[in-house]
Amino acid sequence: MGKTSKDDKPRATDPLVNKKAKFNFELIEFYEAGIVLTGSEVKSLRSKKGNLTDCFAKIRNGEVFLENFQIPPYKDGGYANHPEIRPRKLLLKAKEITKIERATKEKGLVLIATRCYFKDNRLVKVEVATAKPKKLFDKREDIQKKEAKIEIERAMKDKLRR
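== SsrA-binding protein ==
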């Protein structure tokens, strides 16, 4: 979830991260996109509320829409609050959209959201990536590599203590 301040409240500059993206997918190419939001959604994101875990993007009629991006209603929003889950339009260049569309159709790739953050502390950006789903044995291999790395670090730490 990012670094926290002294009082354990997340800072507005810390990004929302899709932690399962690297585990479930092989991320190939990244794109930074703007996102169309309402005012209460931005306020909710500033207070570090949101979930990218099952988030993916679809291309419809030459436009990219983000699906399953959960932004809970702003607590002080009143009657004008937004729905928690709805398709949200991503703002990408036309060349990028055609490149992504070609990759998803020809190569069988998917488009998933990896991060959501504030750029220059005012613009909400979403980092999307074209990705290839991992097989079960690929996931096991990643877990083994991670465990081996931890084991090596422990051994080095013990050796330095002596």
